[in-house]
């Protein structure tokens, strides 16, 4: 992996949340009476690996596209390009996409795509009484949205050097709206949305905590500390954060959309003309990275990420992100597995897991786990 290709510092990146620098994991100095001594260590070994997955984050340097346009006699609403933050942002941008789509007052609406954006947009519109059909070439569990880690964190979905102030102004209420809606799914087992003890760990101290995306009130129990941190790191930002299990969440939202009347149709669109030949006069484009070819959006490119799933450990209810020379090591526990990551490689299109990367990740997390028990 080429280190220059790693995405560090894009948009609301982990860097902005306190992980700007990337240096070797420091030697731990752990107080035996650590406040984390009740944390159980991650069992990270190759014999606990169930599978690895690779997904392509649909990244637009200027930020997601959320707007309505007229093409011939059709209204096309675009809701795509959410990079590494699509699960997080989904309700927020889909609420606005649904508002655009409802304006022409056409009873029938087509939604293109059945990832998190298509599903949330379809559900919102169907609940408002519109006759919605989702057209897609892949449905859950076969979308990029199913691969997501998926921590609720507005992160890595635009380039700060490129995004406009108008984008940022509009983005804040979108983040907040999305968070509010996710709160309604917490602790309802069918949806797989749970609070977790989340640790951002840094190899060097910081003077102050920054204002986090959407406002610090979205991050319960947010604190920073410079001693007695997880794994002995010199600096830590701790908060309660939501973890969403897409393998539960997406089928549940799909089912809700169907119960509200949404129909599903397998379709693969090769061109805009294919799209314009749909019978509906209002079409919401939620095709993620697919929008690049379909609507000639040359600004968008993939940021490839590999994740590995380990056998579940119900005793683990904490998560962490640690910067390393290669990028990051992060761990998010779910009911059905422990997800470890992760990579972020710009413009890489391959979706085949790399065995060496899996081994490196497993070893990296095992080294961290040793710091809990040493
Ligand atoms: C490794 C990894 C980790 C991630 N972690 C997080 C995280 O922790 N938190 C977070 O918020 N986000 C995370 N993300 C980002 C998130 O997964 C994406 O932003 C999100 O899934 C995008 O959703 P979408 O619905 O726009 O696209 P997709 O899920 O890709 O759905 C696109 C849909 O459009 C359909 N489609 C595309 N082209 C066509 C076509 N031509 N014809 C017909 N159908 C078409 C597809 O079949 C699919 O149904 C992560 C992503 C990856 C890869």
Automatic annotation (TrEMBL):
GO molecular function annotations of the record: D-amino-acid oxidase activity; FAD binding
Cofactors demanded by this protein: FAD
Keyword Metal-binding: no
One Pfam short name: DAO
FAD dependent oxidoreductase domain mapped to chain residues: 108-356
GO cellular component: cytoplasm
SUPFAM superfamilies: Nucleotide-binding domain (SSF51971)
Keywords tagged on the record: FAD, Flavoprotein, Oxidoreductase
Top-level division of the source organism's lineage: Bacteria
UniProt keyword annotation of DNA repair present: no
Enzyme class, first EC level, given as a word: oxidoreductase
Gene3D superfamilies: D-Amino Acid Oxidase, subunit A, domain 2, NAD(P)-binding Rossmann-like Domain
GO biological process, one term: D-amino acid catabolic process
Record PANTHER family: D-AMINO ACID OXIDASE (PTHR11530), D-ASPARTATE OXIDASE (PTHR11530:SF11)
UniProt record similarity statement: Belongs to the DAMOX/DASOX family.
Record-given protein name: D-amino-acid oxidase
Organism name: Pseudoalteromonas luteoviolacea NCIMB 1942
């Amino acid at each position: 992996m080429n280190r220059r290709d790693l995405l560090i510092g894009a948009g609301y990146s982990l860097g902005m949340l306190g992980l700007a620098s990337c240096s070797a994991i420091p030697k731990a100095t752990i107080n035996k009476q650590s406040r984390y001594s009740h944390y159980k260590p991650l069992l990270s070994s190759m014999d606990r690996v169930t599978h690895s997955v690779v997904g392509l984050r649909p990244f637009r340097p200027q930020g997601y596209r959320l707007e309505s346009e007229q093409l011939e006699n059709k209204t096309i609403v675009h809701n795509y390009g959410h990079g590494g933050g699509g699960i997080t942002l989904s309700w927020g941008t889909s609420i606005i996409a649904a508002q655009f789509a409802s304006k022409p007052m056409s009873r029938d609406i087509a939604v293109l795509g059945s990832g998190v954006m298509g599903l949330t947009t379809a559900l919102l519109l169907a609940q408002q009484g519109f006759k919605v059909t989702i057209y897609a070439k892949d449905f859950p569990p076969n979308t990029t949205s199913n691969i997501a880690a998926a921590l609720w964190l507005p992160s890595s979905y635009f380039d700060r050097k490129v995004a406009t102030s108008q984008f940022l102004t509009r983005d804040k209420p979108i983040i907040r709206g999305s968070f509010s809606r996710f709160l309604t799914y917490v602790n309802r087992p069918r949806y797989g949305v749970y609070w977790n003890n989340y640790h951002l760990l840094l190899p060097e101290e910081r003077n102050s905590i920054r204002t986090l995306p959407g406002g610090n009130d979205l991050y319960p129990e947010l604190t920073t500390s410079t001693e007695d941190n997880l794994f002995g790191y010199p600096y830590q930002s701790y908060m309660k954060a939501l973890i969403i299990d897409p393998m539960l969440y997406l089928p549940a939202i799909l089912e809700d959309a169907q119960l509200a009347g949404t129909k599903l149709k397998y379709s693969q669109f090769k061109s805009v003309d294919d799209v314009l030949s749909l019978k509906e006069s209002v079409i919401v484009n939620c095709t993620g990275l697919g929008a690049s070819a379909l609507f000639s959006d040359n600004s968008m490119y993939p940021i490839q990420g590999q994740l590995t799933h380990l056998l579940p450990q119900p005793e683990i209810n904490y998560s962490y992100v640690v910067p390393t020379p290669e990028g990051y090591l992060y761990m998010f526990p779910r009911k059905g597995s422990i997800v470890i990551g992760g990579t972020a490689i710009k413009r890489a299109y391959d979706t085949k897991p790399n065995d060496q990367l899996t081994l490196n990740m497993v070893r990296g997390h095992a080294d961290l786990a040793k710091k809990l028990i040493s």
